[in-house]
Design brief:
Pfam families: ABC_tran. By secondary structure, the chain is of the alpha/beta class. It contains eight helices and ten strands. It has a six-stranded mixed beta sheet with strand order 6-7-8-3-9-10, with helices on both faces. A four-stranded antiparallel beta sheet has the order 2-1-4-5, with helices on one face. The protein binds adenosine-5'-triphosphate.
Length: 234
């Protein structure tokens, strides 16, 4: 469980997050959606303990998120994470040496699934291949919490679909709390259980994906359109 209580993050006078209170329940898969600059990455970095709130409390499990990444949490960051001079297998060995929860067996499976060549250097990988390698590295860890910030960045539309299917099989549903930020709303839909919409640093809407599908017959995109259209009218 991750609890955010009255979280505000200020950079100078600008508020990236403005009084956000939300509880991510254990074992559920969440999508954080929202336009550019709405605070998605800030909220992820905060849960990972890389950014500190100006006000409020972040609790991951029983612990308050610290400045270092909590050990039961894997974070796919939109920038950094990979060492250009390493080969893929050296990156895998490095992660294995750093994290006791890293499964070499899962990494081997993911190497095949992601169609990566273990002997290739990180600096020679395309953006899409780097994205796949990042996913391999975090999905190989057996953590309680998995934070994926823009996991599809750089992936072409043809492979996105395959990668989403991979996510479904590599996520431990019911056990791992997974939080994904993305602009690829339609592609991510099959993975999600809950969706949250951030706008200008605040949570504007929250839905259970199955409920809106079964009770209202809507996809997330349709739900978003209908929710915000109704608000604009009122
Ligand atoms: N280190 C920083 N210094 C100053 N302002 C920042 C910093 N990081 C983020 N911000 C500001 O906070 C706001 C939210 O940024 P954030 O990166 O969280 O948005 P986002 O929803 O992830 O955007 P995108 O979809 O474009 O990735 C933006 O206005 C951004 O300019």
């Amino acid at each position: 469980m991750i609890e955010l209580t009255h979280i505000t993050k200020e950079y100078g006078k600008r508020k990236s997050l403005n009084d956000v209170t939300f509880t991510f329940e254990k074992g559920k898969v969440y999508g954080i959606l929202g336009p550019n600059g709405s605070g998605k990455s800030t909220i992820m970095k905060m849960m990972a303990g890389l950014v500190y709130p100006s006000k409020g409390i972040v609790k991951v499990g029983e612990k308050k998120a610290d400045r270092k990444i909590a050990s039961n949490l894997a974070f796919l960051a939109s920038e950094g994470m990979l060492y250009p001079s390493f080969k893929i297998d050296q990156m895998i060995d490095f992660f294995h040496s750093q994290y006791s929860d890293f499964s070499m067996e899962k990494a081997e499976e993911l190497l095949v699934f992601m169609e990566l060549d273990r002997h290739q250097k990180v600096s020679q990988l395309s953006k899409g291949q780097q994205g796949r390698l990042k996913l391999l590295l975090v999905l190989s860890r057996q953590t309680d919490v998995l934070l994926l910030d823009e996991p599809f960045m750089g992936l072409d539309p043809m492979v996105r679909d395959t990668i989403v299917k991979g996510l479904v099989s590599f996520i431990d549903y019911g056990k791992q709390t997974v939080i994904i930020t993305t602009h690829e709303i339609t592609e991510i839909e099959p993975v999600l259980e809950e969706a949250i919409v951030l706008e200008k640093g605040q949570i504007r809407a929250h839905c259970n994906v199955e409920e809106i599908r079964e009770e209202q017959g809507l996809s997330i995109l349709e739900w978003l359109k209908s929710t915000f259209k109704q608000e604009d009218v009122s």
